[in-house]
């Protein structure tokens, strides 16, 4: 009786293994049907969904200009203090003192990718990027300054 059950269990296990292997073999021969992806080998052609949010970035043009006026609307919209906009005053061509961004500090480790800051920005100065490989050994490296050194406000942006 015991031996019969024992053999039956082994036969069941082998049958189950073969069933799984048959599925694996099928995907091996039909690569185009596979749902899983070979990350990180497929980094260059991953095809992330368009709406995927990886981090907040501030685009700069070739002249090292951005569109951030330092209005702090994004900082106020952020629900968890991820953004800190440090401002300064600059004298413009007409000799007028004007507020400008000094440092746009972004704490990636706090960001929930809710997108509220992007929606709040009146000048489209920030956007979501799709980079998601954020692992670091030192947590402080997740705090980023989004405006580049020596960058300035793009002409015509108010
Ligand atoms: S995406 Fe959300 S959590 Fe992240 S900085 Fe913007 S408002 Fe804050
Ligand atoms: S990113 Fe946009 S909302 Fe935030 S300070 Fe700059 S201009 Fe204002």
Order of helices and strands: HEEHEEHEEE
Largest sheet: 3 strands, antiparallel
N-C termini distance: 87 Å
**From the helix content, strand content and strand pairing, which structural class follows?**
alpha+beta
Into which percent range does the helicity of residues fall?
10-25%
- Mind telling me which CATH architecture of the largest domain this is? 2-Layer Sandwich
Which compounds are bound in this model?
iron/sulfur cluster
* Uncertain residue ranges: none
Number of helices: 3
What is the average per-residue confidence, as pLDDT, rounded to a whole number? Answer: 93
Instruction: Quote the CATH topology of the largest domain.
Output: Alpha-Beta Plaits
Q: In the residues, how many domains can be counted?
A: 2
Q: CATH class of the largest domain, please?
A: Alpha Beta
Overview of this structure, please?
The protein is α+β, with helices and mostly antiparallel strands and 158 residues long. The protein folds into two domains: 2-36; 53-153, Alpha-Beta Plaits, CATH 3.30.70. 24% of the residues lie in helices and 21% in strands. The chain is built from three helices and seven strands; from the N terminus they run H-E-E-H-E-E-H-E-E-E. The protein has helices spanning 2-29, 73-77, 116-120; strands spanning 55-57, 65-66, 83-91, 97-107, 127-129, 143-145, 152-153. Strand 3 and strand 4 form a beta hairpin. The longest helix has 28 residues, at 2-29. The radius of gyration is 26 Å and the shape is elongated. Bound molecules: iron/sulfur cluster (2 copies). One iron/sulfur cluster binds at residues 56, 77-78, 80, 82-83, 111-117.
